Known about the structure:
B: alpha+beta; 28% helix
Amino acid sequence: MLRLRTYSPPASRPDRNAANLLLLSAAMAIAIHVIRIPAWLMLVTACLLLWRFCIDNLGWRVPGRLLRALLAMVMVIAVYGHYGTLLGRDAGSAFLVGLVGLKLIEIRQVRDYYIGVFLLYFLTLGGFLFSQSLLLAFYAVAVTTTTTITLFLLNRPVGYGPRQTLRLFGVMVLTAVPLMLVMYLMFPRIQGSLWGLPDDAFDARTGLSDEVAPGSVNRLLNNDRVAFRVHFDDSPPPPAQQYWRVMVLSEIDGRRWRRHVGSGDGKAAGSFTPLGNGVGYQVVLEPTNQTWLAAMDLPGTVPDLAVARPGHTLAARSPLRQRESYSLRSFPQYVTGALRVDQLKHNLAWPVPPSERVRALATELRRLARNPEEIVELALAHFNEQAFRYTLSPPSLGRDPLDEFLFETRAGYCEHYAHALAALLRLSGVPARLVVGFQGGEWNPVGGYMIVRMSDAHAWTEAWLPQRGWQRVDATAAVAPERIEFGVEGLRELYRAEADQENLSREEMQRLLAPQWWKRALREAWMRWDAVNDAWNRWVMAYGPEKQRRFLRAIGFSTPTWAQAVISMVAASALVGLLAAVFILGRHEPRDRLAAVYRRFCHKLARCGLQRAANEGPLDFQRRVITRRPDLAHPVAQITAIYTGMRYGRDGTEHLPKLKRLVGKFAP
Amino acid sequence: MAAGSSAAFTLHRRQLFMLPTRFGVIFAIVLFVMLLAAVNYNNGLAYGFTFLLVALSMVSMLYTHRNVSGLTVRVGMPTPVFAGGSMSFPVIIENDQQVPRSAVWVLSAGSPLRMDVPPNSSVSANLPVPATERGYLRCPPLRLSSAFPLGLLYTWSAALEPEARGIAYPKLVAAAPPPAARQSERHDPAGSFPEGDDFVGLRAHQPGDPPRHVHWKAAARGQGLLTKRFGAEGQGRMWIDWEMTAGSDVEARLQTLCRWIVDAEEQGMIYGLRMPDRVLPPGRGPAHRHACLSVLALWGLDNAPA
């Protein structure tokens, strides 16, 4: 410690540039959090930053210790009051924002600046707990650069204007990136967390819920957030096959469908007989903080991170807290097996007695049909032929929703239809259940993958037929085929155009939906951006223990242990660091043009026998040369004067060309 | 006179050491906490960010090293000062490379000296060293140090021990009894000093001396009334003699002689110095003054030149 104090150079007193750059960096870092922190905190912090600005530039006084302590206390209490805690991601970052504001107004010494800069680093890191997008990554690099340049300015560099400073940092960052990559790739990653995470570690995402009542899917229809992206191994299947099943609900209390707990309806996913070839694909699922996984009807494999659930669905082993990807093979054509008696009973149950009209309709269906297949067909035909219409804003339903929907309002969206169809089938003696998931998606032609959004959420019915087992029956498709073909977004577009969708032909709809040129351009730009992000997510952000194992195996560690990973990381860092050292230290070794010119002059004299001794100064050498060769007195004196003027005096580089010319002409 | 030397030190890799500053130590802790957060939240960008900062500080190490490495340090000969003053050693740093060297600190016993050396040039700054007593003053050991560019790491050089030394004359006392009283009794071999235009010296005031010959400056300094004596060119000679001072305190006697020499030079007299073991023939001018004062400075010291 004593040595530290003895040798360490004193820190310079910070100047106004450093202060203002720190202020700018703080504003930039706080901007990462601006939409998440409460408005009052934003306001207070903005005032504190403004205050700092006035202190640095208008000569305001730094507030006294008492006032600062008071402000800090109020801040702590207010944040605690708002979040009920100071820990965790949300409260923690809000607290950090306030802390940065408070630290800024009390900055006086170099030490305070350093602490301020370190706080800003923390604040930037905190932003990543909310989002890991490519955009934020770029922004964070900008924030880090200004923050770090603040440190640079604290040392009061001389000879570095804004351009030189930026260039210096450009080179520094570029040199640091390979080192960072080595550490990023090789630092041993672990599965799970070191200790328990606070409750708010991850967003409570809106997602599919475990139960469905009319209205629960509708909630999602306005949610444009991407649910997952799908990369197909070959060409994508037609829209009519793009049903992404997530959950199977077979328990009904008359109004609300739930997942059946218990042995339920059949064996796990995969226990079916596929007909024809499957479709291979990779799903990149956005974090949900839930365990559901989407799989196209019907998944034939179970990826590592998942377990098979009843009803041919998949679930993750633990809540998905970050983007996960998994590969699957699905079979659009299939036959599932027989049902046990208890399963039959379970899938036929209807707990509340239906109204007279509903009972009559069910009886009618059973009377007209010769077998279950025909019951399904007749039921679908009923929805198709009667005046049912598909709408995203259905009238609300009263005490007997089933009766009112079937006979009075006759307007609804997927879950109304799925619910009504399942009810009719069960009441007619055909086992039926609800499937919740997604339908369709948007094709990204740039990246060659499909984007499925929360708004693509869908519910449909499955009926159990004696010969074929569970088969998908989508009443929505019968009522509004455009929903399946154009998706919810397309429907909304048609509503906006106030088109009478009942009477429009498919071609007319397509024409109506063809976007204007600027929309197309915007869309294409967005698709490009999404494709870049997708690549970022798939190749950069999804790098975890599994991918690391694969990477280390690829570079030659068959079963890498922790120790091996650390050793190889250190070795690789050292290697890259050495390269950086050669790059930075080697680049600037004597490219001293002045010395080179003078060397040439000496060389010319040496050829005619006047060798300059190693310890001979330019002036001594000049004297010796002139004594021996008085004829050279003029040029030698001229050259020596310019050289010594530049080397030891204050003459600038503007004399270099003249010196070069003189040495060039010099001919002893 | 062998005082001063311009032996140059060029700083190479082996003479440079590096450690984190106290901010660097705090920064290391910050990085560790950030890494823990990245591991705990299993957050890819947080890993990337932390490693970027680690990599940046590693790269800054190279820049810190480059900021000092290859510099050539010379310490020039300082101007002599009187003991009790501060001797300024000119420290010259030469940068023969294309990059500017900023915030290079010269650390020594006293307060540190900051130097910024543009590319391909050299810069000089004065390192103040207090001259507490007369005699030779060696330049204290120096270290070059720098925390450029981020202040997280600092490099320092091995101690450089420059040969440069300067001379500190005896302390310049404010007042000394005038040599004139005894000098006037000791008739110079050159004979009496006839009146002339040239100022030749001082003697005690006697009634009847013209008032414009009174040395009022000396009177103001509390040295009593003195009369300026004027003589013709070549006659303003004066011997400053060890024997003219009395007392057992060698330092006080040297200081008195020192004062006389300074005054004599100031008054344009031709003066000689007579010490028990040597005689400096009369002369005047800065070189003569320096020669006389150097004899006093080194009087009785081991390192006095023969």
